[in-house]
Amino acid sequence: MEEGAMRLLAAAIAIGFGALGPGIGIGIIGGKAMEAIGRNPEAEGKIRVAMILAIAFAEAIAIYALVTALIVKFA
């Protein structure tokens, strides 16, 4: 295989697997937060803040994967 093709394949695998974990994690976080709000509606504010914070941290991992894929592709 050509070096350029290998770089593209490596970048695609890096962003693919790098986005898979955070995507699943965000789905689980959202589902559990809705479940918690359903059980205890009075705590909605605290649950929402914790949910948004956890989603932001999970999304940061996906951004690291994107940066890694771009480095592999262009460097």
Describe this entry's structure for a reader.
With 75 residues, this protein is mainly α. It has a single domain (3-74), classed as F1F0 ATP synthase subunit C (F1FO ATP Synthase), CATH 1.20.20.10. 91% of the residues lie in helices and 0% in strands. It has 2 helices and no strands. The chain has helices at residues 3-39, 44-74. Helix 1 runs antiparallel to helix 2. The relative contact order is 0.19. The model has no long low-confidence stretch (mean pLDDT 94).
In short:
With 75 residues, the chain is mostly helical.
CATH topology: F1FO ATP Synthase
Compute the separation of the termini in Å: 18 Å
Q: Mean pLDDT, nearest integer?
A: 94
- Sketch the topology as an H/E string, one letter per element: HH
Q: What is the strand content?
A: under 5%
Q: What percent of residues adopt helix (DSSP H or I)?
A: over 70%
Cα-atom Rg, whole angstroms? 17 Å
Characterize the overall form: elongated
Secondary structure blueprint with pairings:
Layout: H1 3-39, H2 44-74
Helix pairs in contact: 1-2
Which characteristics define this entry?
75 residues; elongated; F1FO ATP Synthase; 2 helices; mainly alpha
